[in-house]
Specification:
34% of the residues lie in helices and 20% in strands. It contains 18 helices and 18 strands. It binds 2-(butylsulfanyl)adenosine. 2-(butylsulfanyl)adenosine binds next to strand 3, strand 8 and strand 11.
Length: 561
């Protein structure tokens, strides 16, 4: 991320004494290194993108004002900020033939026009608003995932690697092979390198996080991080169990003798598609900077309707000869820039905090909000995770609060607005007894979680069945809450095995069920009979046996029979 130098920040930096500037530089550099580590290695960011960018800009400004601070170790001098393989990594190191670059960011229309002005200067073209028909941009959605490089030899996938620090990445070929969207064989026996983004669809991200929350595991901050976590699994079966996907956006191919080489980015996208790669259809070529701005305005809202996360638009100079003339600065090409959509935040009222009982008895405080529209949907509920979080954020019932979607997917109460308090707000306390079965609530020494210890608690039981029938378990399509509630209330399901004794006639008796819907559900139950052992084990919801342990146990068993 090479950021344009902000003159106001440089002026502020220049006003510092040399010692003060050095100390500030060291402090920010340390903070950025720590943030990089949490983001890329732990897959668990500690800083928001905006906070990170602000720090980075200040660092760039300090170095502009005091050039002696620009040492090779400075975070501004690294090609990438990705995870560098270290001794703790189980994956082999891979050196990239060409470095995998990162992109500079632009946050508004002005910064995009400044990019256009730099490109024009670099290509000796007249400044805007004069026409420059020989300069055309391609605008692509910026996929919020994990950049990977795929090498194919004679049309076969030979090796896949993560970006790592841009120079050296990790060999994750076995895991990448489990991703259906990545072709194993190309449409022709070409020897190429393709690059693109592995990502996790929003629905899958939400599902995995819900499971992690219930299991008391740390939540993934966004689909990018859960995608990265899924790709860096030691056991490819875990990667396979997470529904990851892929879009290709870069191609390196030596043309065959006599054949015309691909001359531009739009040609590369077409060639990638012809070779059998998934290429995101939401890109547009032949644009000037006004066309680019129109494209991103068009996607500002529309992106929320996509099944995958996009956090911006990547703008690329189309022609490769122009790209070559523009070259790159330390970490990023001069011919491309990433426009970032600001995360949408809205204000609403925290009307209540209600503890919900989960499958394992965990009591999760849930924010009941005055419905507010944010990032494409109306939000009325948001998990507050646990009591410590409620206290840390100092959220009180009745507060005006700021709401956003984490990773643009999961609703999150960011903070209260204490200046709007009237004094009528109330502090939330966990109940002493389970709100469903009235059993005294337990909190283990030193643990954050409160829970209902009654295994027969109706709330727990209902959730157990939902987990059993749900996506991570037996995946019985159509057995949602409304159906499960009826099955349990009417005593049609008293044990997990009972699902498999339900016939079309039984199901037809359910509210709002006709012959057709009963047949569909019966068919879904039939399909669920043949789930793999790991899924069945996970579905049973045995304490301490989650997705990973279930896979380990079934792999171990398979090795013994
Ligand atoms: S082009 C030198 N195109 O964004 C060009 N990158 O912030 C580098 N990304 O490392 C990549 N969607 O992980 C490109 N359509 C797209 C992209 C894209 C997402 C990611 C990629 C890159 C990062 C830079």
């Amino acid at each position: 991320m090479s950021l344009p130098v902000d003159p106001a920040l440089v002026a502020a930096a220049a006003a510092l004494g040399a010692d003060e500037a050095r100390a500030r530089h060291a402090a920010i550099a340390a903070e950025i290194r720590a943030a990089n580590h949490s983001y890329y290695v732990d897959d668990n960011p500690t800083l928001s993108d905006a906070a990170y960018d602000a720090l980075f800009r200040e660092l760039v400004a300090l170095e502009a004002a005091f050039p002696a601070l620009t040492t090779p170790e400075s975070p501004t001098q690294r090609v990438g900020t990705g995870a560098t393989p270290d001794e703790s990594s189980p994956f082999a190191e891979v050196r990239h033939e060409r470095p995998m670059l990162s992109l500079g960011n632009a946050f508004g229309e002005d910064e995009l026009r400044a990019f256009d002005a730099r490109v024009r200067r670099g290509l000796s073209l007249p400044p805007a608003p004069e026409a420059a028909p020989e300069l055309r941009y391609v605008a692509e959605l910026k996929i919020d995932g994990l950049a990977i490089s795929l090498r194919y030899r004679d049309g076969r996938l030979a090796r896949g690697a993560t970006r790592g620090d841009g120079t050296t990445g990790e060999d994750v070929t076995a895991n990448l092979r489990t991703i259906v969207a990545i072709p194993d064989r190309l449409a022709e026996p070409a020897t190429i390198e393709a690059r693109g983004e592995v990502f996790m669809p929003k629905a899958e991200f939400a599902r995995i996080n819900a499971e992690r929350e219930e299991a008391g595991l740390a939540l993934y901050a966004n689909p990018r991080n859960s995608g990265a976590g899924s790709l860096r699994q030691i056991d490819p079966a875990v990667t396979a169990g997470r529904r990851l996907s892929f879009w290709a956006y870069q191609l390196h191919e030596e043309p065959l003798p006599g054949a015309a080489p691909v001359a531009d980015q739009s040609g590369a996208l077409a060639r990638l598609a012809a070779l059998g790669f998934p290429v995101n259809p939401n890109h547009r070529a032949g644009l000037d900077i006004d066309g680019v701005i129109a494209f991103l305005e068009e996607w500002r809202e529309r992106r929320h309707g996509l099944e995958y996360e996009t956090d911006g638009v990547v703008v690329k100079v189309d022609r490769f000869d122009q790209q070559a003339r523009l070259g790159m600065v330390a970490r990023a090409p001069r011919w491309a820039i990433a426009y970032k959509f600001p995360p949408e935040q809205v204000e609403t009222i925290l009307e209540d905090i209600v503890p919900y009982v989960g499958r394992t008895g965990t009591l999760t405080p849930v924010a009941h909000l005055r419905p507010a529209k944010v990032a494409g949907s109306t939000v009325a509920r948001a998990t507050l995770h646990n009591l410590d979080e409620v206290r840390r954020k100092d959220l009180r019932i009745g507060d005006h609060v700021v709401l956003q979607k984490a990773g643009d997917v999961i609703p999150e109460v960011v903070r209260p607005l204490p200046e709007r308090r009237t004094g009528a707000e109330r502090i939330f306390e966990m109940p002493e007894r389970c709100p469903v079965c009235a059993t005294p609530i337990v909190r283990d020494e030193g643990a954050v979680r409160h829970y209902c210890p009654n295994p027969a608690c109706p709330a727990r039981v209902a959730q157990e069945y939902a987990h059993f029938a749900g996506r991570g378990g037996m995946d019985i399509e159509g057995a949602g809450w409304a159906v499960l509630e009826q099955l349990l209330q009417r005593g049609m399901v008293r044990s997990r095995g009972d699902f498999f004794r339900l016939g079309v006639t039984d199901l037809e008796s359910l509210d709002r069920f006709a012959r057709r819907s009963a047949e569909n559900l019966a068919a879904a139950i039939e399909r669920a009979r043949c789930r793999p052992l790991a899924r069945i084990l996970n579905a049973l919801g045995i304490p301490q046996v989650g997705e990973q342990t279930a896979i380990d146990v079934s792999t171990w068993l398979a090795g013994r029979v």
